[in-house]
Design goal:
Blueprint (H helix, E strand, L loop, with lengths): L1 E6 L10 H6 L1 E4 L2 H7 L6 E6 L7 E5 L10 E5 L10
Antiparallel strand pairs: 1-3, 2-5, 4-5
Length: 86
Amino acid sequence: MRLYRGMTQPYRAEQIDKEKLLMGTDFTDCPLTALHYAQGRNGVLLVVDIPEEPKIRVSEALWSLDDSGPNRYLLHGAPFDPYVVA
């Protein structure tokens, strides 16, 4: 599964709060939606490929009340660095 995260600053693994990883990090399956979050001069689009049997917990989260639009996923618990492809 390929997921996307739009960020206003470049991704730096050393700056990730380990406690927030337990709560989950937001990703979407829609690159266009992620690009909207990557606005600004330093914006980046983080792309991760999650294998069929990941070593990280993935859950689908509610994005909109009417189930329209892209899906939202949370990656929980472990750093997702091994899955970053771009």
